[in-house]
Amino acid sequence: MKALIVGCGTMGRGIAYLFLKHNYFVQIYDENFQAIEKTLNYFKEYEKNLPSDYLKKLKVLENLNNLDKETEIVIEAIIEDFEKKSLLFKKLEPLLDKNCIIGTNTSSLSINELSESIKFKERFMGIHFFNPPAIMKLVEIVKSKFTNENYLNKAIEILRSLSKEVVICKDSPGFIVNRIARPFYLSALKMYEEGIDFKLIDKVMKIIGFKMGPFELMDLIGIDINYNVSKIIYEKTKLERLKPSKIQEEMVKKGYLGIKTNKGFYEYPRETEKFEFKNKLNFEGVYDIKNFKFFTIGYGAEVFDFEDEIETINKLKEMGFEHFVLHNYKFPIAKRIIDDIKLEAKEVYNNGIASREDINKAMKLGTNYPFDVI
């Protein structure tokens, strides 16, 4: 089977590597030859995981006109720019067999609107891989209002052959993961604006069971990228609760973009605090114990409104908690974020965008959330 990957940035090269690893004949194309060189070096660096004859199954295209006419799937992974993607599809489609699937790896642009660039719209869909594509198991397939079930089923078959877990959704701002994950960042940013230390918010979320706190994760993703996704989703939904944060806007203006600029909410390099949980405890929700309250989803405990620190810690240890964080705000920080995440998940489900099963699967595999969101 023959695949074409257009765009050899971080995502494109990872997707091309994945297809090569699973014995596909892979064509790669990028207008920037430095991106091609980086991709070839990437394959060389990790060639121990590729078939020994992978170079025979790899073709670098200098011109899209040279693509193989028997190509069965195209994944577009160029810059997140609507006009550039549209122009590419108009140029590319006449070169392809009418049965070839055309997928875009966009994380936030409308699949319905992009499909207007395609003549045979029924073969077009979002095929959204997560970074890094070679490791992350999840792929979101996003149907436009024109996507045909035969092409959809063929795409599912191809993605499963790459050992991917697939979820299906209708076109909607942010699809599943980026829409439901917005409050993880936006609700945290609102609390920061209200005066709560961002380091405390991060620690609370990790103690509760998340792998990273929202501010650490924004720094990893890139403040600019995270902010732009929020902007796109807000512009499409006009929901006040999804309005982007002024804090991020100012950081982008100053060039504080996270790890890639050595400064975001944190300064880098830095050591990160991690928490391991041996067991999930049989506690979930808010508990009002004598002299303190706590919130948990079964891993660590967020203690708030407490009186005596030593007495509180001893009681938590008796209850089996290995990790906990104490603060004297009158409400649980983590519950506010989690409630907002669940509200977004309910919206996605109630609007028929995705099934309950696919919503929970997407959030566990795409963002490593330690609980069912719906």
Cα gyration radius (Å) = 23 Å
CATH topology of the largest domain: Rossmann fold
CATH class of the largest domain: Alpha Beta
- By CATH, the architecture of the largest domain is named 3-Layer(aba) Sandwich
Largest sheet: 8 strands, mixed
* CATH homologous superfamily label of the largest domain: NAD(P)-binding Rossmann-like Domain
* Shape by Cα distribution: elongated
State the end-to-end CA separation: 38 Å
Instruction: Calculate the mean pLDDT score and round it.
Output: 97
**What are the low-pLDDT stretches, counting only 5+ consecutive residues below 50?**
none
Strand content: 15-25%
How many structural units, i.e. domains?
2
Structural class: alpha/beta
Number of helical segments with 4 or more residues:
14
Cross-sheet strand order for the largest sheet: 3-2-1-4-5-6-7-8
Please estimate the helix content: 40-55%
Give the beta-strand count. Answer: 12
